[in-house]
Design brief:
With 688 residues, this protein is of the alpha+beta class. Strands 13-12-11-16-15-14 form a 6-stranded antiparallel β-sheet, with helices on both faces. Strands 2-1-5-4-3 form a 5-stranded antiparallel β-sheet. Strand 8 and strand 9 (239-249) form a beta hairpin. Helix 10 (266-283) packs parallel to helix 14 (407-489), helix 15 (496-527) runs parallel beside helix 19 and helix 18 runs antiparallel to helix 19 (645-655). The longest helix has 83 residues, at 407-489. The protein is elongated and about 185 Å long. The N and C termini lie far apart (139 Å).
């Protein structure tokens, strides 16, 4: 059985039933709308995309629009921008056939801030598809805050803040401006109506917007943040603004509003730039005096908007231009001028920057002149050197300045004067230093020549000493040998007086040969090439004792050696040093058997070595004398020797970078001390 291609058509009774149903529904809808129209609450219906399908009279009155103007429009566009996201989230949570409530802040067309309570119901088809949403709103501002108090506070706040010179703006976390004062309107060049309700980021430069967003990400309620930004949105040349931004919170601890207070700091930044430039000019070591001062003067001409910059030296009643820049051909450089006619005298007498002519801070109608027509504008500051005035830093023009000059400019001129003083003082100090360096260079060259000459003389003396000692020792040995033979082989042929004379000759020859030997040792110590080794001082003292074994034994001496360090030294010379000092202690002994002590102490990075004894001692007044060559305190018959032993000790210590001295506070004998560094001294400059 085949199916009919066309479905059965409704009968006339069905048509009548459908029409009756539609009429009944229309009547019910009209009845609903008539009832709703009489309500004071705001009632509207809209589709899921927020397109308005119905609005009662209260809704139309609230938004100040006709029903025809509202129907078909999206109601979300009537919601403030900072509330839209919350409204859409709330609608998204609405389920078919269910209701929810939502409270939000709103701003009326006349600028009133109100709070609305919305009760929304989702209408749906049989398949649970939401077709419409019905919303009923009620003004709850009297619950949130008393409207009269809000209006009064707003008026009061507006009046107080509008009187402030600083620009002030308030805005929501979403960036919507809620308040601006008159100074902010002037800064932005817009009316309050244009600014309130708009975004805080509009009519601001990109760098301001970026900096502000970074600040808002960091501050919490009750906190503030200060930042500076160069803003070019207010004028073509732009300005530096300092903004103090503070966050305000709601009862839940969330940021509800921000306030930003601005301050124009362009003058401070300009001053900083000037000081930076002046610092470079004044401290540039490679530039000449004229170039640096010329650069400062050129900079000042551009900064003050004047024709000429001058550094004027003042002497008695006259003044003379030392440096000039700008339109310098207007002023006769190098010519003397009357200090009072130029205004420099008045500046020096005042001791502070002064201005004459077309300047806000002019003192009187005096017009300075540098031999040309009087200047319409003149500013000058005194220059000092060692607290004495010597000149004036001045800027002048025949006409008015290119911009208004005031007290800030005179203060800046004073700062520039200090930099000019610094540069001139530095130049003078540099010249004096250069002359001193040249003088010292000449002196060092002369000294170097003398040192070379002395080295040559020392080398000649060393060679002479070697040759002389060799040539002198041979005849002395012959004398000793001859006198010895005569005393032994011809004693019977000589009387007592002759034998005595021969003994005197033999003794003199022996002493002379010993003296020559010691002199040769002394000379060689001063010219010897030092061969440093890491040595044990205790070992060197022991070797010195072995060399003096016979002398120690004959005198019955006792040698006590304390703990001694290991040092870098020339072992042969240091052994000789200990040997001479111990030998000296044994030689100059008293009635008791000699007792010699060698000890060491570490002090200030050096070792102090002491050799003390219980001998006859040395009067402190001879502390220096005994260390000199050929200086003896006793006769040859009492204590034999050449008088060179301690001088040799001193020379050995000095060659090691140390000092030898007699401990004048030591009692009970003598104590010689010397210090030695832990490391070998640099002897690269010594002659071999």
């Amino acid at each position: 059985m085949s199916k009919d291609k066309n479905p059965p058509q409704p009968t006339g009774e069905a048509d009548e039933f459908s029409a009756a149903t539609r009429e009944l529904l229309e009547q019910q809808k009209q009845l609903f709308e008539d009832v709703v129209q009489e309500q004071n609450e705001l009632v509207c219906r809209f589709t899921p995309d927020t397109t308005i399908t119905f609005a009662n009279d209260a809704y139309c009155r609230y938004y100040g629009r006709s029903r025809e103007d509202l129907l078909g429009k999206r109601f979300i566009d009537l919601v403030p921008e900072d509330e839209r996201e919350h409204v859409l989230l709330s609608l998204g949570e609405l389920l078919p056939g269910k209701t929810n409530v939502h409270e939000r802040r709103d701003i009326t067309r006349d600028g009133r801030v109100v709070w609305l309570h919305w009760h929304r119901t989702a209408l749906s088809e049989a398949d649970d598809r939401i077709t419409e949403i019905q919303a009923v709103g009620r003004d709850i501002s009297d619950v949130k805050f008393p409207q009269e108090a809000v209006i009064a506070e707003k008026v009061k706040f507006q009046a107080i803040i509008d009187d402030q010179a600083e620009p002030i703006v308030r805005f929501t976390p979403d960036g919507e401006r809620t308040f601006v004062n008159a100074a902010y309107c002037a800064l932005r060049g817009r009316s309050r109506e244009e600014l309130v309700g708009g975004s805080i980021y509009s009519w601001h430069s990109d760098n301001f917007s970026g900096e502000l967003k970074a600040v808002l990400d960091t501050i919490r309620p009750g906190e503030s943040h200060l930042f500076e930004i160069f803003d070019t949105s207010g004028s073509e040349e732009g300005c530096w603004m300092q903004w103090n931004t503070r966050a305000f919170g709601d009862p839940n601890g969330e940021v509800s509003e921000y306030q930003a207070v601005g301050r124009d700091v362009t003058a401070a930044h300009r001053r900083g730039a000037v000081l930076e430039s002046l610092n470079w000019f004044a401290s540039n070591p490679e530039a000449s005096q004229g170039d640096v001062l010329g650069s400062i003067l050129d900079f000042g001409c551009a900064h003050f908007g004047l024709e000429s910059g001058l550094v004027v030296e003042v002497r008695d009643r006259d003044c003379q231009i030392a440096y000039s820049a700008g339109a310098s051909n207007l002023i006769q450089s190098g010519v003397a001028f009357d200090r009072d006619a130029t205004g420099c005298g008045r500046v020096l007498d005042s001791g502070a920057p002064l201005a004459f002519g077309a300047v806000e801070t002019s003192r009187d109608d005096f017009l300075p002149s540098f031999g040309v027509e009087p200047a319409a504008t003149f500013i000058g500051a005194p220059l000092y050197m060692e607290d004495q005035p010597f000149g004036v830093l001045a800027f002048t023009a025949r006409g008015e300045a290119r911009r208004a000059l005031g007290a800030d400019d005179l203060e800046m001129l004073g700062l520039m004067a200090r930099w000019v003083e610094t540069r001139i003082a530095s130049h003078r100090a540099y010249d004096a230093l250069e002359q001193e360096v040249q003088r010292r260079t000449v002196a060092e060259q002369s000294l170097s020549k003398q040192v070379m000459s002395l080295q040559e003389v020392n080398e000649e003396l060393a060679r002479f000493a070697f040759v002389a000692s060799h040539d002198l020792q041979e005849p002395l040995r012959q004398i000793e040998s001859a006198t010895s033979v005569m005393l032994e082989d011809y004693a019977d042929l000589m009387d007592e007086e002759g034998a005595q004379f021969l003994n005197i000759a033999a003794s003199g020859a022996s002493r002379a040969r010993g003296l020559i030997t010691d002199l040769l040792k002394f000379a060689r110590i001063g010219t010897a090439n030092m061969q440093y080794e890491h040595c044990s001082l205790a070992k060197l003292v022991k070797e010195a004792q072995e060399n003096l074994a016979r002398q120690i034994s004959e005198a019955g001496a006792t040698i006590t050696v304390g703990e001694l360090p290991d040092l870098e030294c020339e072992p042969v010379l240091v052994r000789q040093l200990f040997q001479n000092l111990i030998s000296n202690s044994i030689k100059f002994r008293g009635e008791a058997a000699p007792s010699v002590t060698v000890d060491a102490e570490h002090r200030d990075g050096r070792w102090i070595i002491g050799v003390s004894d219980n001998g006859i001692g040395i009067d402190p007044q001879y502390a220096e004398r005994v260390l000199e060559v050929f200086q003896r305190l006793h006769g040859k018959q009492d204590y034999p020797g050449t008088g060179i032993g301690l001088a040799i000790c001193r020379r050995i210590v000095e060659r090691h970078g140390g000092t030898l001295w007699l401990d004048t506070e030591y009692s009970g004998g003598s104590r010689f001390c010397f210090n030695l560094p832990e490391k070998a001294p640099d002897t690269s400059g010594e002659a071999d």
